[in-house]
Structure formats: structure tokens, C-alpha cells
Design goal:
Blueprint: H1 2-19, H2 27-36, E1 40-48, E2 51-60, E3 63-71, E4 81-85, E5 92-97, E6 100-105, H3 120-129, E7 135-139, E8 142-149, E9 152-159, E10 164-171, E11 174-185
Antiparallel strand pairs: 1-2, 1-11, 2-3, 3-4, 4-5, 5-6, 7-8, 8-9, 9-10, 10-11
């Protein structure tokens, strides 16, 4: 009888392992990974109410550099570089577009609620903070975190290293998706023009 119970336990464990029935990483591990980094670089694709864009993104504490490398929704935005430097002006960003430079307040409609002046991860964490603890579900080598927010769900996928690889939420009845790639942690990236 003991042998059958042991075999049954091994079979259940084998099924759980093969189907990924528990999360590879925890939400706390994902947050810790991002918050422990002094600096990072990544690329990400965005599709949502602001258009369809690809970015090179560099974060180094109080300095952020964002370059639009593809702008399917508005090709004229390609090549735009947005720089935030808290020591220059904490409430403004500068953008180089073609040969010119413009300055915008962080509260400007094109800047507000973007990662142009704040860590992209802190922006995501602040958006999910009001939604309570997420449920977690392993999906192969990824973990999906689902937050039940007022009026919508916010889904975040992370890889086994605790890196966010995708976010998805509803904004103004439009799905907003970000896909993250090419992480370089603690890389002291270039954050100026």
C-alpha cells in the first residue's frame, strides 16, 4: 500500500511539473529584479491608444533616454529621442525630432503616464498597486500574473529570470500591450542625446 501511495505521489508530482501547474517566479521576485537594478537597457514594442511603436529604452536612476526606432502608426516619429534628466528639470523632458528640440512638461498629454520620465517598471508597478495581489499561473517557461483592477484585468508575463516580457491591459476600451526584449541589467547606458 505504501508503494502505491508513493507511486501515486510521484505521478502527481510528475504531472504538475510537466504541466507547469505552479509559478516559475513570484511577483515579489519580479519586482525585486527591477527595483534592485541601478540601471538597465531594453527594447520594447508598444501597441495601444498612443499608436504602434518600438522603443530603445535606457534607465539610470534619475536619467532616462527613450528612442523611437519604429513608428508604424506615425512614421514621422521614428528617430525621435526623448531625454529626462531630473537634475536638469524634474518636471520636464526634452525631445529631439529631426533637427529640432522641444521641451514638454511631464503633465503634457504626450508625456503624462509614460515611461519617458519614470522607470517603466515603477510605472507598471504603480498601475498594478491599486489592483491587489495577482493570481499566478505558469505557462511553460513563463509565469502569467493577473491583476483584477477596477473595471478591467491587467496581465503581466515574466520569464524564469524574473524579467517582465509582456504586459496587457484595457485603456479607454483599447487593449494596450507592451512586449519587452534584449535586457541589459546594470549596464550604465547612455542617457543623453
Amino acid at each position: 500500500m505504501k508503494l502505491y501511495k508513493s507511486l501515486a505521489g510521484l505521478i502527481v508530482l510528475s504531472v504538475l511539473l510537466s504541466t507547469g501547474a505552479w509559478a516559475e517566479v513570484s511577483w515579489d521576485q519580479v519586482q525585486k529584479k527591477a527595483r534592485d537594478a541601478k540601471s538597465y537597457q531594453l527594447t520594447y514594442s508598444y501597441k495601444g491608444p498612443r499608436g504602434e511603436l518600438d522603443f530603445d529604452y535606457a534607465y539610470a536612476g534619475d536619467k532616462i533616454r527613450t528612442e523611437i526606432v519604429r513608428a508604424k502608426s506615425d512614421p514621422s516619429k521614428k528617430g525621435t529621442v526623448i531625454v529626462y534628466d531630473k537634475s536638469w528639470k524634474p518636471d520636464m523632458v526634452r525631445a529631439r525630432i529631426g533637427g529640432g528640440e522641444i521641451i514638454r512638461k511631464n503633465s503634457h498629454k504626450d508625456v503624462e503616464n509614460t515611461p519617458f520620465y519614470q522607470s517603466i517598471f515603477e510605472m507598471i508597478f504603480s498601475q498594478t498597486d491599486k489592483c491587489g495581489k495577482p493570481s499566478a499561473k505558469a505557462q511553460g517557461d513563463k509565469t502569467q500574473f493577473t491583476f483584477k483592477c477596477p473595471g478591467y484585468e491587467y496581465k503581466i508575463w515574466a520569464n524564469a529570470d524574473g524579467e517582465i516580457i509582456k504586459t496587457e491591459r484595457e485603456v479607454d476600451h483599447v487593449t494596450e500591450t507592451r512586449r519587452f526584449m534584449s535586457y541589459r541589467w546594470n549596464s550604465n547606458p547612455k542617457t543623453d542625446f
